[in-house]
Amino acid sequence: MCGIFAYLNYQVPRTRKEIFETLVKGLQRLEYRGYDSAGIAVDGPNKTTTDNSKGICLIKKRGKVKALDEELYKKDSLDLDEELETHFGLAHTRWATHGEPSAVNSHPHRSDKNNEFVVIHNGIITNYKELKKYLNSKGYEFESETDTEVIPKLIKYVYDNRECDNVSFSTLVERVIQQLEGAFALVFKSRHFPGEAVATRRGSPLLIGVRSKYELSTEHINIQYNSALFKEGVQEKNSHNRPDSSNSLNSVGDGKAVEYYFASDASAIIEHTNKVLYMEDDDIALVTEGNLAIHRMNRQAGEDPVRAIQTLQMELQQIMKGNFEAFMQKEIFEQPESVVNTMRGRICFDTSTVVLGGLKDHLKEIKRCRRLIMIGCGTSFHAAVATRQILEELTELPVMVELASDFLDRITPVFRDDVCFFISQSGETADTLMALRYCKERGALTVGITNTVGSSISRDTDCGVHINAGPEIGVASTKAYTSQFVALIMFGLMISEDRISLQKRRLEIIEGLRVLPEMINKVLSLDGEIKTIADELFQQRSLLVMGRGFNYATCLEGALKIKEITYMHSEGILAGELKHGPLALIDKDMPVIMIIMKDACYTKCHNALQQVTARSGRPIILCCQDDPEITKNAYKTIELPQTVDCLQGILSVIPLQLMSFHLAVLRGYDVDCPRNLAKSVTVE
Predict the structure, then answer these.
(1) What pTM, to 2 d.p., does this model score?
(2) Considering 2, 605, 623, 624, which one is annotated as catalytic?
(3) Which residues have C-beta within 8 Å of that of residue 217, sequence separation ≥ 6?
(4) Which end of the chain is more exposed for a tag (fewer CB within 10 A), N or C?
């Protein structure tokens, strides 16, 4: 979704050009999230002011960050060489939800023509119509079609009606967010509070990076519960409400140099610092005179009163393309390493034991449950579908697989003895997060399967597994899918460790996992062969992908990849349903990909193949090596190494990932940033 990046340099001299470069580089690191316009806000003259130190200059542009970058240097009124000792700049990439992509609808949004307050926002304000109607009645004029614009107008209204002149910036923001409904991450800048920054979040991710040449005075920030509390008409104030409180983080000694980076995710921060603070819902972060403090309205029972500065393990080269054409291609070819990283330290192949550290304290509770509910969206949902059958076999429990949005729409019954899995690469998927909160309210044990340390799902679940796939930049998920697949298989292996009747099956799967990276390398070596097939298919308008059993999820995921980045219509079909409708689509002109592996469904899939060829279909078949019976009925084959049936889906999805990549390139599309899509879907 939208990308937030902001940079505050305190007592660190930077030219305006250097500040522009930092802001633009931050946005470029967030481009993978998907966007249609971009904008920045810096100190400088606007149309109603000529004094650089007093005004805020907004520069916004529809299209790519590169177009915005070019626009910055056309502003004759801005002195690029002017050195600013302390400065706060905002930058944003917008993914349109309310109002078409345009400069006026893009962020930052302003309070008025004097740019007294400006804000950048990720999320959706659900009660914006009511707020807009109220503010209109008070004489505030709106210039965009967005939901976001009510926020700067509202803070201006609160400021204009303040009870005294010394109301703090964070207090104004606090009063604003009390009126907002929906999901948001917000960063505020104001000409009335120069050099100050305020950020807050509810439901959308936001983190703060800290960099200083001096050692940080603390790596733990005590939260300041600074709002006025009213009890029986008596106003009480918490003692920790001073902006210069010793609880705030600052560089050693007052007035020492420090830089702060605010961002939607760590990829925009890692090249500057690996020291980050993850904000929680309803936190308000205030930077004033170089000190960072965290404020909250009031303290909830069981709430941690401290925010820790964490050290990121991510490396800059992990978010660089290297020698590949696109991030998606790089991530496909990283899968031999990413599945090893998912298994590292968790499977001992010598003793055939599996230990998932994040789950071991809850193992007894999980074993006593009456069913497993696996919840996700898109590719994460397909990872659940792919492993449902083996989890039912290994746990001997009923396994429900649910799309998060549908799960919520149905108000699905959930009980205290259910175990609910929430699968999300980013850990911030809005529908999955809502489902998590729904299940927690009903007392179920919640388990997170995410790829992002510090994400909302990883923090809010009772326990979980971090899949360790490494940063995934391409919008179309590839290595996260295979790592989620492996993580869920490992869960089944850990739960079934004491089942004597399942030991032979367990050992077979563990051996399959041991050789999995080598098998993936063999599949990747077929890239040239897959490209040749893509050369034949790229002008087609539609594509069917068929399979059944363990490979049905592969059909769904392969079809989704083709849809996402090639914009071809593609459909994953359960081969057992062929005669119930889809067979009507088959003729000599309809491209069909079939997945037929030597497993329990082999004979049934062979029957489906006969039906396709009888209708003059020309199937491209993913099959096992040395299977002449299939080869003679195929138009083309892609022969894959054979592994244990429940792991075959990992090997069979990779040719479809490669196929979608080559089709998109041949059709001339941007593989990493498909139209209308975002990497992290942080709104419902």
Answers:
(1) 0.75
(2) 2
(3) 249, 250, 251, 252
(4) C
